[in-house]
Amino acid sequence: MDTIITFTLKDLLVCGVYLALIVMIIYIIKVLMKLHSSMKHVNSVIEDNRIEIDAILKEAPGISQNVNTISEEVAHDITQFRGTVDNIAETTESVTEVVKDNQSVVDGLTSIFHTASIAKGAYDKFFSKEAEQTIDEE
């Protein structure tokens, strides 16, 4: 009694596909079981904190209305402030132009004060030596 069992390549591929499907189904079942466990935990947390969640949901419209009011007031203040900033910028530009125009006067005054400082230094040096010589002679 000679029995020969033969497997074709097609039979092996079909068997492999079936095994892969079985593994994938087992994996999906495990993932769904973990998801179910997580959802149970989330539901228990929600039920434990139902009062606080309801209080937050009741306060949310008032909070958003306050935020809108504050945003409108800030926008209005910024609009008012923008004019002041523009005025300061124009004034600064005018002062800068005046200073540039008067730069030669400032340079002249600086030169006069520098010359006076040199003269004072020479005067102090000259008269401080004479004063020392006079004190030494006595």
User: What is the averaged pLDDT score?
Assistant: 83
- Helix fraction? over 70%
How widely separated are the two ends? 152 Å
| Low-confidence segments | none
Molecular structure report:
- This protein has 138 residues and is mainly alpha-helical.
- The chain has a domain at 8-48.
- It contains 3 helices and no strands.
- It has helices spanning 9-48, 50-101, 103-137.
- The protein is elongated.
- The model has no long low-confidence stretch (mean pLDDT 83).
Give a concise summary.
Helix content is 92%, strand content 0%. With 138 residues, the protein is mainly alpha-helical.
Question: What attributes does this structure have?
Answer:
138 residues, mainly alpha
Topology:
Layout: H1 9-48, H2 50-101, H3 103-137
